[in-house]
Description:
Blueprint: H1 3-12, H2 19-37, H3 48-55, H4 58-94
Main location: membrane
GO cellular component, one term: plasma membrane
Pfam families: Mg_trans_NIPA
Amino acid sequence: MDMGSVVLAHFLLKEKLQKMGMLGCLLCIVGSTVVVLHALEEKFLTSVQEIWELAIQPAFLSYTASAIHCDIVFGFVLVLLIVARLILWFIQEYAR
C-alpha cells in the first residue's frame, strides 16, 4: 500500500492501522527522506551525445538488460500458469 492509500483509508474509511503497518509507514517516510537528502545534484543535459554517454554506461546497460529479462521471464511464466489453469478448467467443465 502506498502512503496516500493508508492515510485516506484511516480518515475516510475509519480503518485502524496495526503496529506493523505503522512501522511500515514510518520506514517509508524515513526511506524517502534519506533518498531525497542523499540524492545527487541534478545535471542538465545539453546534447544528445551526453545522453548517449550516459546510456552506454555498463551499470545502465546491465540494469536495462536485467529488467527486460525479468519482464520476459515473468511474462512467460504468468502466461503459462494462466493458460494451464484455463485449460484444466475447460477440461474439467466441458469434457464430461
